[in-house]
Amino acid sequence: MSRAAYLAGLERQRLLSGARRAQAKAEAQAVAEGVAETVALSIARGGAFEVPADARRGKPYRRQAGLDWLAAKGRLSPAQRAAGERYGACYRRARGEIAIASTLDVKPGLSGGTGAPLSEVLAKAEANAQARARLAAYRRRLWDQSALVAACDKICGEELTPREAAAAEREASRLEAVLAVALDILAGA
Question: Which residues contact 127 (CB under 8 A, 6 or more apart)?
Answer without folding.
Answer: 93
